[in-house]
Amino acid sequence: MSTVDEQQVTARTVGSVRVVGAGLLGASVALGLMAKGVDVIVHDASPSNLRLAIDYGAGRAAHATDSPALIVVAVPPDLTAEVVAQELKAYPDALVTDVASVKVAPLAELRVVGADVSRYIGSHPLAGRERGGAISARADLFIGRPWVITAHAGIPAAQIAVIEHLVLDLGAVPVAMSAEDHDRAVALVSHAPQAISTLLARRLVDANPGSLELAGQGLRDTTRIAASAPELWVQIMGANSQYIIEVLRDFRTDLDVMIHALSDQEARGARKSLAQILAGGNNGVSRLPGKHGQDRRFAQIVVKIDDRPGELARLLTEIGELGVNMEDLRLEHSPGAQIGLAEIAVLPEAEERLVSELEERGWKIAGAYQ
Q1: What is the pTM of this model?
Q2: CATH code, domain carrying 337
Protein backbone atom coordinates (compact mmCIF):
# COMPACT_ATOMS: atom_id res chain seq x y z
CA MET A 1 0.00 0.00 0.00
CA SER A 2 1.43 3.39 -1.00
CA THR A 3 2.00 6.05 1.64
CA VAL A 4 1.39 9.77 1.30
CA ASP A 5 5.16 10.32 1.03
CA GLU A 6 5.34 7.84 -1.87
CA GLN A 7 2.41 9.57 -3.57
CA GLN A 8 4.16 12.94 -3.24
CA VAL A 9 7.05 11.63 -5.32
CA THR A 10 4.66 11.13 -8.24
CA ALA A 11 3.24 14.66 -8.01
CA ARG A 12 4.71 17.22 -10.39
CA THR A 13 3.20 20.10 -8.42
CA VAL A 14 5.67 21.47 -5.86
CA GLY A 15 4.69 23.21 -2.63
CA SER A 16 1.28 24.06 -1.22
CA VAL A 17 -1.66 24.88 -3.46
CA ARG A 18 -4.39 27.27 -2.34
CA VAL A 19 -7.78 26.66 -3.97
CA VAL A 20 -10.18 29.60 -3.72
CA GLY A 21 -13.77 28.52 -4.29
CA ALA A 22 -15.09 25.20 -3.01
CA GLY A 23 -17.64 24.53 -5.73
CA LEU A 24 -17.58 21.70 -8.27
CA LEU A 25 -14.37 22.71 -10.08
CA GLY A 26 -12.47 24.02 -7.07
CA ALA A 27 -13.29 21.03 -4.89
CA SER A 28 -12.49 18.64 -7.75
CA VAL A 29 -9.08 20.30 -8.24
CA ALA A 30 -8.48 20.00 -4.51
CA LEU A 31 -9.54 16.34 -4.36
CA GLY A 32 -7.35 15.46 -7.34
CA LEU A 33 -4.29 17.14 -5.83
CA MET A 34 -4.95 15.60 -2.41
CA ALA A 35 -4.93 12.18 -4.09
CA LYS A 36 -1.40 13.02 -5.27
CA GLY A 37 -0.29 13.92 -1.75
CA VAL A 38 -0.18 17.68 -2.40
CA ASP A 39 -0.82 20.02 0.55
CA VAL A 40 -4.09 21.74 -0.42
CA ILE A 41 -5.45 24.83 1.32
CA VAL A 42 -9.14 25.42 0.64
CA HIS A 43 -10.87 28.77 0.98
CA ASP A 44 -14.44 29.82 0.25
CA ALA A 45 -16.39 32.96 1.05
CA SER A 46 -19.12 30.75 2.48
CA PRO A 47 -18.08 29.08 5.77
CA SER A 48 -20.62 26.29 5.23
CA ASN A 49 -19.29 25.56 1.71
CA LEU A 50 -15.77 25.52 3.11
CA ARG A 51 -16.64 23.09 5.91
CA LEU A 52 -18.47 20.83 3.47
CA ALA A 53 -15.48 20.70 1.08
CA ILE A 54 -13.09 19.92 3.93
CA ASP A 55 -15.46 17.20 5.21
CA TYR A 56 -15.33 15.66 1.73
CA GLY A 57 -11.54 15.54 1.92
CA ALA A 58 -10.76 18.47 -0.37
CA GLY A 59 -7.97 19.86 1.81
CA ARG A 60 -7.49 21.92 4.95
CA ALA A 61 -8.45 25.38 6.15
CA ALA A 62 -6.03 28.26 5.71
CA HIS A 63 -3.45 29.25 8.33
CA ALA A 64 -1.99 32.73 8.82
CA THR A 65 1.49 31.34 8.08
CA ASP A 66 0.57 29.73 4.75
CA SER A 67 2.77 30.61 1.79
CA PRO A 68 1.30 28.78 -1.23
CA ALA A 69 3.38 28.40 -4.35
CA LEU A 70 0.30 28.20 -6.57
CA ILE A 71 -3.23 29.58 -6.20
CA VAL A 72 -6.19 28.25 -8.20
CA VAL A 73 -9.17 30.62 -8.29
CA ALA A 74 -12.44 28.78 -8.95
CA VAL A 75 -15.18 31.34 -8.41
CA PRO A 76 -18.07 32.53 -10.62
CA PRO A 77 -16.97 34.41 -13.77
CA ASP A 78 -18.19 37.79 -12.56
CA LEU A 79 -15.93 37.52 -9.50
CA THR A 80 -12.87 35.98 -11.14
CA ALA A 81 -10.83 39.14 -11.84
CA GLU A 82 -11.62 40.65 -8.43
CA VAL A 83 -10.60 37.51 -6.53
CA VAL A 84 -7.47 36.96 -8.65
CA ALA A 85 -6.39 40.54 -7.91
CA GLN A 86 -6.94 39.98 -4.17
CA GLU A 87 -4.91 36.77 -4.21
CA LEU A 88 -2.04 38.36 -6.16
CA LYS A 89 -1.86 41.11 -3.56
CA ALA A 90 -2.19 38.84 -0.53
CA TYR A 91 0.43 36.33 -1.70
CA PRO A 92 3.18 38.25 -3.55
CA ASP A 93 5.32 35.13 -4.09
CA ALA A 94 2.55 32.94 -5.55
CA LEU A 95 1.62 32.19 -9.14
CA VAL A 96 -2.14 32.53 -9.69
CA THR A 97 -4.37 30.82 -12.23
CA ASP A 98 -8.14 30.58 -12.57
CA VAL A 99 -10.55 28.08 -14.11
CA ALA A 100 -13.18 30.47 -15.49
CA SER A 101 -14.68 29.56 -18.84
CA VAL A 102 -13.84 32.95 -20.36
CA LYS A 103 -10.31 34.30 -20.53
CA VAL A 104 -10.24 37.67 -22.33
CA ALA A 105 -12.38 39.59 -19.83
CA PRO A 106 -10.54 38.63 -16.61
CA LEU A 107 -7.12 39.52 -18.04
CA ALA A 108 -8.42 42.86 -19.33
CA GLU A 109 -10.00 43.68 -15.94
CA LEU A 110 -6.79 42.79 -14.09
CA ARG A 111 -4.79 45.12 -16.29
CA VAL A 112 -7.27 47.95 -15.72
CA VAL A 113 -6.91 47.70 -11.93
CA GLY A 114 -3.12 47.47 -12.16
CA ALA A 115 -2.77 43.91 -10.86
CA ASP A 116 0.58 42.13 -11.23
CA VAL A 117 -0.34 40.03 -14.26
CA SER A 118 3.26 38.82 -14.53
CA ARG A 119 2.20 36.23 -11.90
CA TYR A 120 -1.16 35.42 -13.48
CA ILE A 121 -1.86 32.79 -16.13
CA GLY A 122 -5.45 32.09 -17.09
CA SER A 123 -6.55 28.52 -17.66
CA HIS A 124 -9.75 26.57 -18.26
CA PRO A 125 -10.52 22.86 -17.85
CA LEU A 126 -13.09 21.63 -20.36
CA ALA A 127 -14.86 19.48 -17.80
CA GLY A 128 -17.88 19.71 -15.57
CA ARG A 129 -21.20 18.25 -14.56
CA GLU A 130 -24.79 19.48 -14.64
CA ARG A 131 -24.81 19.60 -10.83
CA GLY A 132 -22.46 21.86 -8.89
CA GLY A 133 -21.05 22.17 -5.40
CA ALA A 134 -18.51 20.21 -3.41
CA ILE A 135 -21.01 17.39 -3.02
CA SER A 136 -20.70 16.70 -6.76
CA ALA A 137 -16.89 17.08 -6.88
CA ARG A 138 -14.72 14.21 -8.09
CA ALA A 139 -10.97 13.68 -8.02
CA ASP A 140 -11.14 12.17 -11.51
CA LEU A 141 -13.28 14.93 -13.05
CA PHE A 142 -10.47 16.17 -15.32
CA ILE A 143 -8.95 12.86 -16.46
CA GLY A 144 -8.48 12.85 -20.22
CA ARG A 145 -10.12 16.26 -20.63
CA PRO A 146 -8.48 19.25 -22.37
CA TRP A 147 -7.27 22.00 -20.07
CA VAL A 148 -6.47 25.24 -21.91
CA ILE A 149 -3.58 27.40 -20.69
CA THR A 150 -3.73 30.99 -21.95
CA ALA A 151 -0.33 32.46 -21.19
CA HIS A 152 0.03 36.08 -22.27
CA ALA A 153 3.05 38.03 -23.46
CA GLY A 154 5.97 38.18 -21.05
CA ILE A 155 5.13 35.06 -19.03
CA PRO A 156 8.30 32.97 -18.48
CA ALA A 157 8.32 29.34 -19.63
CA ALA A 158 9.04 28.23 -16.06
CA GLN A 159 5.73 29.69 -14.88
CA ILE A 160 3.82 28.06 -17.71
CA ALA A 161 5.41 24.76 -16.67
CA VAL A 162 3.94 25.16 -13.17
CA ILE A 163 0.41 25.26 -14.62
CA GLU A 164 1.22 22.37 -16.96
CA HIS A 165 2.32 20.30 -13.96
CA LEU A 166 -0.95 21.08 -12.21
CA VAL A 167 -2.91 19.99 -15.28
CA LEU A 168 -0.93 16.77 -15.67
CA ASP A 169 -1.26 15.93 -11.97
CA LEU A 170 -5.04 16.13 -12.41
CA GLY A 171 -4.93 13.79 -15.40
CA ALA A 172 -5.95 16.43 -17.93
CA VAL A 173 -4.34 17.30 -21.27
CA PRO A 174 -2.69 20.76 -21.43
CA VAL A 175 -3.56 22.83 -24.51
CA ALA A 176 -1.85 26.16 -25.21
CA MET A 177 -4.03 28.89 -26.75
CA SER A 178 -4.32 32.66 -26.67
CA ALA A 179 -7.15 34.10 -24.59
CA GLU A 180 -8.89 35.31 -27.75
CA ASP A 181 -8.62 31.95 -29.52
CA HIS A 182 -9.90 30.21 -26.40
CA ASP A 183 -12.98 32.40 -26.07
CA ARG A 184 -13.81 32.02 -29.75
CA ALA A 185 -13.38 28.24 -29.54
CA VAL A 186 -15.54 27.71 -26.44
CA ALA A 187 -18.25 29.89 -27.96
CA LEU A 188 -18.49 27.32 -30.76
CA VAL A 189 -18.05 24.06 -28.84
CA SER A 190 -19.60 24.93 -25.46
CA HIS A 191 -21.43 28.22 -25.07
CA ALA A 192 -23.53 28.28 -28.26
CA PRO A 193 -24.46 24.57 -27.81
CA GLN A 194 -25.70 25.47 -24.32
CA ALA A 195 -27.89 28.21 -25.79
CA ILE A 196 -29.25 25.96 -28.54
CA SER A 197 -29.89 23.07 -26.16
CA THR A 198 -31.73 25.43 -23.83
CA LEU A 199 -33.90 26.83 -26.59
CA LEU A 200 -34.82 23.32 -27.72
CA ALA A 201 -35.66 22.24 -24.17
CA ARG A 202 -37.90 25.30 -23.77
CA ARG A 203 -40.17 23.85 -26.48
CA LEU A 204 -40.94 21.01 -24.07
CA VAL A 205 -42.44 23.22 -21.34
CA ASP A 206 -45.89 23.42 -22.92
CA ALA A 207 -45.72 20.13 -24.81
CA ASN A 208 -48.54 17.62 -24.59
CA PRO A 209 -47.59 14.92 -22.06
CA GLY A 210 -48.44 12.29 -24.67
CA SER A 211 -45.85 13.79 -27.00
CA LEU A 212 -43.17 13.59 -24.33
CA GLU A 213 -43.86 9.88 -23.91
CA LEU A 214 -42.43 9.43 -27.40
CA ALA A 215 -39.11 11.10 -26.54
CA GLY A 216 -36.09 9.00 -27.40
CA GLN A 217 -32.38 9.21 -26.73
CA GLY A 218 -31.85 11.81 -29.43
CA LEU A 219 -33.91 14.40 -27.57
CA ARG A 220 -32.31 13.47 -24.26
CA ASP A 221 -28.83 13.82 -25.77
CA THR A 222 -29.53 17.22 -27.30
CA THR A 223 -31.20 18.68 -24.19
CA ARG A 224 -28.99 17.17 -21.46
CA ILE A 225 -26.96 20.33 -20.86
CA ALA A 226 -30.12 22.45 -20.70
CA ALA A 227 -30.35 21.31 -17.06
CA SER A 228 -27.30 23.45 -16.18
CA ALA A 229 -27.58 26.30 -13.67
CA PRO A 230 -29.11 29.44 -15.29
CA GLU A 231 -27.36 31.85 -12.90
CA LEU A 232 -23.94 30.55 -13.96
CA TRP A 233 -24.73 30.64 -17.66
CA VAL A 234 -26.03 34.20 -17.51
CA GLN A 235 -22.52 35.18 -16.39
CA ILE A 236 -20.69 33.00 -18.92
CA MET A 237 -22.77 34.13 -21.88
CA GLY A 238 -22.54 37.75 -20.84
CA ALA A 239 -18.75 37.59 -20.59
CA ASN A 240 -18.32 35.88 -23.97
CA SER A 241 -21.24 37.45 -25.83
CA GLN A 242 -19.18 38.70 -28.78
CA TYR A 243 -18.13 35.27 -29.96
CA ILE A 244 -21.38 33.52 -28.99
CA ILE A 245 -23.35 36.00 -31.11
CA GLU A 246 -21.16 35.17 -34.13
CA VAL A 247 -22.03 31.47 -33.85
CA LEU A 248 -25.73 32.08 -33.18
CA ARG A 249 -26.01 34.40 -36.18
CA ASP A 250 -24.61 31.69 -38.45
CA PHE A 251 -26.99 29.22 -36.83
CA ARG A 252 -29.90 31.58 -37.48
CA THR A 253 -28.89 31.86 -41.14
CA ASP A 254 -28.94 28.08 -41.55
CA LEU A 255 -32.23 27.88 -39.67
CA ASP A 256 -33.79 30.47 -41.98
CA VAL A 257 -32.64 28.48 -45.02
CA MET A 258 -34.16 25.31 -43.57
CA ILE A 259 -37.45 27.02 -42.73
CA HIS A 260 -37.64 28.50 -46.23
CA ALA A 261 -36.92 25.14 -47.88
CA LEU A 262 -39.54 23.33 -45.79
CA SER A 263 -42.12 26.08 -46.34
CA ASP A 264 -42.05 25.66 -50.13
CA GLN A 265 -40.64 22.25 -50.91
CA GLU A 266 -41.65 22.48 -54.58
CA ALA A 267 -39.62 25.64 -55.13
CA ARG A 268 -36.59 25.29 -57.32
CA GLY A 269 -33.56 24.27 -55.25
CA ALA A 270 -35.52 23.79 -52.00
CA ARG A 271 -34.70 20.11 -51.58
CA LYS A 272 -31.09 20.74 -52.56
CA SER A 273 -30.76 23.43 -49.90
CA LEU A 274 -32.20 21.12 -47.27
CA ALA A 275 -29.96 18.25 -48.34
CA GLN A 276 -26.87 20.47 -48.22
CA ILE A 277 -27.63 21.58 -44.66
CA LEU A 278 -28.21 17.98 -43.54
CA ALA A 279 -25.02 16.83 -45.28
CA GLY A 280 -23.17 19.70 -43.64
CA GLY A 281 -24.24 18.30 -40.29
CA ASN A 282 -22.81 14.91 -41.27
CA ASN A 283 -19.54 16.53 -42.24
CA GLY A 284 -19.37 18.49 -39.00
CA VAL A 285 -19.92 15.42 -36.84
CA SER A 286 -17.23 13.54 -38.77
CA ARG A 287 -14.68 16.17 -37.74
CA LEU A 288 -15.20 15.64 -34.02
CA PRO A 289 -12.24 13.79 -32.55
CA GLY A 290 -13.21 10.43 -31.11
CA LYS A 291 -11.37 8.05 -28.85
CA HIS A 292 -7.69 9.00 -28.36
CA GLY A 293 -8.34 12.12 -30.44
CA GLN A 294 -8.85 10.16 -33.63
CA ASP A 295 -10.80 11.96 -36.34
CA ARG A 296 -12.64 8.96 -37.73
CA ARG A 297 -16.06 7.31 -37.85
CA PHE A 298 -16.92 4.05 -36.13
CA ALA A 299 -19.42 1.37 -37.00
CA GLN A 300 -22.48 1.32 -34.75
CA ILE A 301 -24.10 -1.94 -33.65
CA VAL A 302 -27.42 -1.79 -31.78
CA VAL A 303 -28.08 -4.76 -29.52
CA LYS A 304 -31.38 -5.51 -27.74
CA ILE A 305 -30.95 -6.21 -24.03
CA ASP A 306 -33.54 -7.63 -21.68
CA ASP A 307 -34.19 -5.21 -18.83
CA ARG A 308 -32.97 -7.41 -16.01
CA PRO A 309 -29.90 -7.38 -13.77
CA GLY A 310 -26.60 -8.53 -15.26
CA GLU A 311 -27.55 -8.44 -18.95
CA LEU A 312 -25.45 -5.41 -19.88
CA ALA A 313 -22.48 -6.79 -17.98
CA ARG A 314 -22.87 -10.11 -19.82
CA LEU A 315 -22.93 -8.35 -23.20
CA LEU A 316 -19.80 -6.33 -22.46
CA THR A 317 -18.02 -9.41 -21.12
CA GLU A 318 -18.79 -11.38 -24.26
CA ILE A 319 -17.62 -8.55 -26.52
CA GLY A 320 -14.34 -8.63 -24.60
CA GLU A 321 -14.12 -12.43 -24.93
CA LEU A 322 -14.46 -12.01 -28.70
CA GLY A 323 -11.41 -9.76 -28.70
CA VAL A 324 -13.26 -6.70 -29.99
CA ASN A 325 -12.36 -3.30 -28.54
CA MET A 326 -15.44 -1.22 -27.79
CA GLU A 327 -14.84 2.41 -28.75
CA ASP A 328 -18.01 3.84 -27.21
CA LEU A 329 -21.30 2.83 -25.60
CA ARG A 330 -24.73 4.45 -25.41
CA LEU A 331 -27.85 3.08 -23.73
CA GLU A 332 -31.49 3.78 -24.51
CA HIS A 333 -34.59 2.44 -22.80
CA SER A 334 -37.85 2.12 -24.67
CA PRO A 335 -40.73 3.61 -22.60
CA GLY A 336 -43.16 0.92 -21.52
CA ALA A 337 -41.03 -1.93 -22.86
CA GLN A 338 -38.90 -4.33 -20.84
CA ILE A 339 -35.91 -4.01 -23.14
CA GLY A 340 -33.01 -1.66 -23.60
CA LEU A 341 -30.91 -0.84 -26.64
CA ALA A 342 -27.13 -0.79 -26.37
CA GLU A 343 -25.44 1.11 -29.18
CA ILE A 344 -21.89 -0.22 -29.44
CA ALA A 345 -19.25 1.66 -31.45
CA VAL A 346 -16.45 -0.46 -32.93
CA LEU A 347 -13.90 -0.16 -35.69
CA PRO A 348 -15.56 -0.73 -39.09
CA GLU A 349 -13.39 -3.77 -39.81
CA ALA A 350 -14.71 -5.48 -36.67
CA GLU A 351 -18.40 -4.88 -37.36
CA GLU A 352 -19.30 -7.91 -39.51
CA ARG A 353 -17.52 -10.43 -37.28
CA LEU A 354 -18.96 -8.98 -34.06
CA VAL A 355 -22.53 -9.03 -35.42
CA SER A 356 -22.12 -12.64 -36.51
CA GLU A 357 -20.57 -13.78 -33.25
CA LEU A 358 -23.15 -12.03 -31.08
CA GLU A 359 -26.02 -13.50 -33.07
CA GLU A 360 -24.52 -16.97 -32.64
CA ARG A 361 -24.52 -16.36 -28.88
CA GLY A 362 -28.22 -15.49 -28.95
CA TRP A 363 -28.10 -11.71 -28.94
CA LYS A 364 -30.66 -9.88 -31.07
CA ILE A 365 -29.17 -7.17 -33.30
CA ALA A 366 -31.54 -4.26 -33.86
CA GLY A 367 -29.31 -2.56 -36.39
CA ALA A 368 -25.78 -2.07 -37.67
CA TYR A 369 -24.51 0.91 -39.64
CA GLN A 370 -21.51 3.13 -40.29
Answers
A1: 0.79
A2: 3.30.70.260
